[in-house]
Amino acid sequence: MSHVALALALGLTGGLLAGVFGVGGGIVFVPALTLGLGLGQLTAEATSLAAIVPVVAVGSFRQNRDGLVHWPSAAILGGCSLVGVLVGAEIALDLPESTLRRAFAAFLVVSAIQMALRARRQLKLVAAP
Q1: pLDDT tens digits along 49-64
Q2: If 14 and its partner were Cys, which of 20, 24, 76, 95 is the partner (CB 3.0–4.6 Å)?
Q3: Where are the domains of the chain?
Q4: Where are the alpha helices (DSSP H) in the chain?
């Protein structure tokens, strides 16, 4: 599959997952960019940040039509995220790529475990008499 075709498929998949689950950027794009397109970890992270901008704009607009966006919380999260991403980008630039890759993998594993445990608790609550 060509680079362009793979990027198109990745963009469509990431957009679909963002719309359904509210995720897409780091969780979907970064692994796909590193494994599928062969980008380095730092380049994949930076590309993911740039690619998520239109996804966020369209997704927020669409969800706001149904009154689902809590704008005061979004403003606080967004403002703090701006500071966080500036600090995080500086840290990422200072780390060796292998360390960054391992840290990202650990983040994904911890996130997956947390989600699995939360889903298990929810199943227990639903199944309880």
Answers
A1: 898 888 888 888 889 9
A2: 24
A3: 3-127
A4: 3-21, 30-35, 41-65, 71-94, 97-127
